[in-house]
Amino acid sequence: MEIHNLMEKMVIDVVDDIFSDKVFIERTGCNNSDACRTDVVCYVLNRIQPIYTTSSRGLAHLGKTFIDEPQSIADITALVNEGIRQVGTHLRPVASETTSNLPEPPIFNFPIIKGKVVDGKTFAPYSGSSISLKMNGELVKMNGLRWNNPCELIAETDGNFLFWPLPIKAEKIGEQKSFSFELSLSASGYKPVKHFLDFELKADDKFINSMEVDRIFKVESIYLFNIDDPEEIIPD
Length: 236
Fold this sequence. Notes:
Elements: E1 4-5, H1 6-19, H2 22-27, H3 34-45, E2 52-53, H4 56-67, H5 70-89, E3 107-108, E4 112-119, E5 130-135, E6 138-139, E7 151-152, E8 160-163, E9 168-169, E10 176-185, E11 193-202, E12 216-218, E13 222-224
Parallel strand pairs: 4-12, 4-13
Antiparallel strand pairs: 1-2, 3-9, 4-8, 5-6, 5-7, 5-10, 10-11
Helix pairs in contact: 1-3, 1-5, 3-5
């Protein structure tokens, strides 16, 4: 079952539309990089209520509902402009960098990996440690210096984390290969967590921008449990 957050596509569409005005973007102190766009999208999504649907039909129906309510688009637009000002004011030194050591095609493009860490008892967002993305026991290189691995889990991001793995060189276009990732987290007072992800990818002839909504992979919420909690015993 695929679950879609209608607001993600709407926010990305509004961000793309506003960022198309390069003169305006430059006046804000922001720039037209993927890093700035990602920061603005995250700024807005962390401040609005998600709306989930499980089908493309539902996505289309909800989309029409919001299009018919101009105030909803106006509210999102206002938050996007606020986010642009915030990102422009606190622009990171590496924010203009979109890629780092990008290999020549053909390459395996990875999606952005998005998830959330919550307390298993209270269901409150967790903050105070960091989560790592590994492959073969090694930290995975990220696509640009602004993408951190490990990723710090702080209160301001409401327990959310994002990774964008650097593309990997392929032998030929269309080559298929499986990749296994491990999300690992150790937090004081909690049991260590390991969560495994598998991707079956086909090599592309160009770099693909993972900011496109259909190239964001959502990990199920990761729950942390107290280290003193008894292990669950499954009866025979």
